[in-house]
Amino acid sequence: MTAPITAGFDGTDESRAALSWAAREAVRQGRALRILHAWQVHPDATVDHATQEGWARDAVAAAARETADRHPGLDVVTDSVEGPVVDTLTAAEDLLVLGSRGHGAVVGFLLGSVGQQVLASAAHPVVLVRAGDGAAHEAAGRDIVVGQEGDPEDSAAAMEFAFETAAARGAGVRAVRAWTLPPLFAYSPGSLRLLDEVGGPEPYERKALADAVRPWRERHPKVPVTEHIEMGSAGQVLLAAAGDAQLVVVGRRARRTAVGARIGSVAHGVLHHAPCPVAVVPHA
Predict the structure, then answer these.
(1) Which domains does the chain have, with CATH numbers?
(2) I need a surface site. Which of 13, 170, 212, 221 has the fewest CB within 10 A?
């Protein structure tokens, strides 16, 4: 049985936007929706534990009723969990949808420490939705943009997510690969030979993108696909392609630092400037 889509909910406007996005996606994919409220006791609160627990439970129940009214037939379940918020959210069994404070395309997504930790630690895709992001981004004709880098297996998880989401929405996929001209010494003899065989760096990059996209084209033959390569930094090229997208999908290779896990620079840049919801997909 397919796991439900989980929407993190805390009553804020951004979490309501995330819940709305998750509900629409659950309807499209024929999946259940789980509304999750992760909370911790406030030690300085003037009310007792039982009262705080009741507030959390009532808030989730009210959100569930509103969602069920908007989407008759959608299977909605609720979960109010007391405990470490990051641990609770990252325990979601599949797609997790979170809200993020935002003030337009220039500022983009404003991630608090919880959001950053969840993105860096989650084992499944996480979608970030800003307050005010409605269904307008999902209008017909808008593609799902997915970034591709490295070998086909490096972006397989992001490609799979993009194509499956596009298939459920009847949308197209725009696969984007950025490339630069590194110093000559960065090429191995084998790489130089391959470049000569395909006629230079640009055809080489075009073939690399086509190879990465091919298995997903074959698996989803009804999904229209556009392949785009461009010289430049990966983050800038991806953002330029995302101007009219309904969703941007980026892979995530988390790295550990002295102050905790951090997502890569491309995902970080897209999250801060994308004009639409962003899906961050951990590498398989």
Answers:
(1) 5-133 (3.40.50.620), 144-282 (3.40.50.620)
(2) 221
